[in-house]
User: Fold these one by one.
Assistant:
Number 1:
Amino acid sequence: MKKTTIWLLTIIMVITFTSLLYMQLIYTKNVVELRDEQFTQGVKRSLNAVSRSLELAETKQYLLNDMLQSDMPAMGRNSFTIMIGADDEDDSGLGSMSLLPGKSWRERIRDQYTYKRALLDEVVLSLISQSNSLPIQERADSALVSDMLKTELASNGITLPFEFAVVNRMGAVVYKTHNYNVNLDNDRNTFVQVLFPSDSRARVNYLKVYFPDKRDYLIHSIKVIIPSMILTIILLVMFIYTIIVAFRQKKLTEMKNDFINNMTHEFKTPISSISLAAQMLNDNSVRKSPKMLEHISGVINDETKRLRFQVEKVLQMSMFNNQKATLRLQEVDANSVIQGIINTFKLKVERYGGQLNAELNAEDAIIAVDEMHFTNVIFNLLDNAVKYRDEERPLQLSVSTADVSDSHLQIVIADNGIGIRKDDLKRIFDKFYRVSTGNRHDVKGFGLGLAYVKKMVNEFDGEITAESELGKETKFIIKLPLTKI
Ligand code: ADP
């Protein structure tokens, strides 16, 4: 896939996902608002009904009291109630009116109606005057208000727990439920209802109600949307991951192509040298000169060695494909193996005018490794130090071993080469990774050496880290577990 195609796909998908999420958010917001509105309407209806019920209850109570009083003549009654009482008895009052001669039933009913209206007027008047003088906590008893609220809210489909308070015109609390929070008085979620709206303005009281769990209730209403949002987010994460993989894969393909190019180049040079030597051998004059023959055999020898080294590297790469490398672990003395490598490598370093110092100070250096691969590891690191040396100054290469703890051996390989930038340092152990900048990239490589080194060190249960300063030095530190004898 082309890079531009991946980018195009990314942009389209990002736009799609953001729109999807945006639409879901808008929908959620609408649902919450609608639910909030329904809730508010329900509460308002309930509060209205409570206020109305209180008024009705008060009126009923008054009438009841009035009737009770009328049943007890001793307690004193007004003129109308006497008449009500009289109405009950057959021999006096209105009851006796029916006995009056000449009055039609029509007139009798009219009389009765007039009388009852007057009675009601009287009741209403005294109701207004009496109730006005009663304190609000008696007119709207807290238990009664609580019950009424519960019933009315339930009939409007609201079963949430609530807290309420009755406050007077000045805002002072007359009574409140235990958990009513006065600080939330002016909150937009506190509902207010005037109690006994017919009272004079000076004596007006308010019922304030709020629902501590209202938020949860609203959130509950969007529960169905949450899974779809989570799914969208999961989809988005998966998509981002896929794009990252696509980019990585693209990079890996490029690296593999580089690798093939390099490999071809690395193989071509020794092959052409050998074929040139073979052609020379065909020449009679060459064959007659033993000096020339010696030279040609030397060239063939060197070039085959080089070829073998390249093949070895490709083989090292193939190790990555095997899930588990087949290693022959054996106990070896790291000091003596390293010493052996140094002896052969010293010449190479000196040929470049450099110096190779060894400080193999570890007293206990017995480790369990595959000797062939361990040698390759040390060799690769030394070889890199030579490859990436700074041409401006003679190479100073040092190898040291030390016991850092009772259980671990530390091997440090340090050089004064071109160094590695911090960003690259993080990636040099990646497969096919090569530092793309710097003046040394006339040096051919596969970007596999360090990946192989790391894999092997890990196979030996050890770890490797690199420290470097650009233009100054590079240090590789290997820690390997000691085998206890
Ligand atoms: P290769 O040498 O084939 O490129 P390696 O995996 O051995 O691959 O190294 C990866 C990169 O790390 C190299 O391309 C090089 O830039 C950098 N590097 C490795 N060793 C050194 C070193 N001693 N000094 C400076 N740079 C180094």
Number 2:
Amino acid sequence: MYQYHLHQRLNQYLKQHQLDLAGADNAVYTRFLANAEAIHTLYQEAYGSHPKGEQFFEELVHVLIRAHRERRPQLKKRDEGKMQQGHWYASNQICGMSLYVDRFAGKLEAMAGKLPYLEELGVNFLHLMPLFESPAGESDGGYAVSDFRKVDARFGTLDDLQKLQETMHQRGFYLMLDIVLNHTSHRHLWAERAKAGDKRYQDFFYTFPDRTLPDEYDRTMPDIFPESAPGSFTWSPEMKQWVMTVFHNYQWDLNYRNPEVLVAMVDTILFYANLGVDLLRIDAPAFIWKELGTTCQNLPGAHRLLQLIRHCVQVAAPGMALLGEAIVAPNDILKYFGEGREAGQECDVAYNATQMALGWDALATGDTRVMLQAQPVLLRKPKGCTWINYTRCHDDIGLGYDDEMIAAAGFNPYLHRRFLMEYFTGSNGSPARGALFSVNPKTGDARISGSLAALCGLEAAQEQGDAVAIAQSINRILLLQAHAILIGGIPMLYYGDELGYANDFTYLDDAGKSYDNRWMHRPLMNWQRNELRKKEGTVEARVFAGTRRLLQLRKALPAISDEGNLRWLSPHNIHVAGYVRSHATQPVVCLFNFGAADAWLTWYAFREQGIAPGTKLLDRWQQKEYIVGSDDAHLVVPGYGLMVLEVC
Ligand code: GLC
């Protein structure tokens, strides 16, 4: 039935704010009405029976209206442009990089001076790692936030951030920032008030007088950092209560069963939107809803809140897209795009962590069969949503894809994972120089730390001064990068990788970092060294030029935009993975040989895709031409090589 009372209520609130509904504010009014029912229904499902549910619903509406009123005209204009463009984040023109401002440039005010470097590489989208206040020594790289609105003095001020955002937008860059939605630092004002005994703020967190419930939760909640932060609860001596801390003991989980928490965080999200964020990275969304007797991850309640957030953002800041940082199993990740009635209505973008890990799997084994097993699931992504594709980021590499996928490829899942751990730590004689992260003795699980160059063998090859091994490692780096850059979605480079930075062990001297070996792949940029990219023949020049060429290729080929236009080649040679990026006038076939030796691929693989013998193919990577041959002839893909074949 038509929601007469809801709309009357909304009209009343909108009038209180004196919006010009028929004039200047007509667009937001339309968006309000379009999203009102979903916002109301989702909110009611979560908070309908909460004693303060009604009160905070009204507050939520006021938050949206205030955010709209405070949105700068330039941002509203940018919203218009993006809405007209449609799924702007799926474009082949976007190339991203993730970086720590302090480790990359020093301060925020120095970042503008680094934009020419990024432009030289072809990057026009920046993920600035957490910038908001976070206590030194207990910061989890900025993911333990003590003030969501104050830029940490280490980086500068909010004003510096605002200036950088304006410069970035003027120069055609997009901005991505984080909202750390699941928890705050124990030094956040809310936590401080809770510690001081304020019941209102104690209800912002999950607090317990004794171990009864924590013990029950612990029975089903997996450890996230089993080595450095086992268990999911911490005793607060000030409060004399246990508090839920799923990540580190200084990160207190927010209690989203309390509507006041949701409204406060939507307000924060819209504050970031109004700073000019184009893509908001929602940190750890899998964890925001807890239920006893479950893993407290990926629960329907978490999806409900994400959908609610997304509808709120559509009203007040429609140009800001949402990225769900859910690093979860292949079947679970798809749910972050929304399902059923909400398909395509949750997160616009998600990390393709499965594909990232499968790239590493294929590199270590030289075999692409596990990667191919995952594709039927990953291709179920709804239209209009896209991936962040990457080879590594500031976090560890988890091997979280399904055992069934490994088994279907013909391997024993346990032994296969063991092999990968040995391979990436170099303990089975491989050239990789990584380390295990978060080893869980109970399950035998572990994740992997190490820079891209170190994991690809470049660090070891350089130490040995072995020119052949260096060349091979560079090919491995470019192979992995190419596979992520051309697959469709936003390619997200990780700073330092464009120059082949090795592991950095200086973190071991810092007590606030030494317990977390993810810092080994969070380097300090050395700008003197970076000049070597201009000196022909250096490793820096070779890696930088190769990466730049891949980004140029991506931008030159419209088929690389993510239009749901990807088909995998059927497996004719286990070492070679390939996909067709279809396009009305300029289709492209991308091939990646994950094996060390030349691989022979039957031309039948092309005929199967409707590319007839006699068709001309132009390899845009090597600038070589081929003619599709008969079924009994082969195309030879060099070891660790790639081809980007334009179908002419
Ligand atoms: C995300 C971040 C990671 C952090 C965690 C807790 O996974 O990427 O670095 O440790 O959230 O906030």
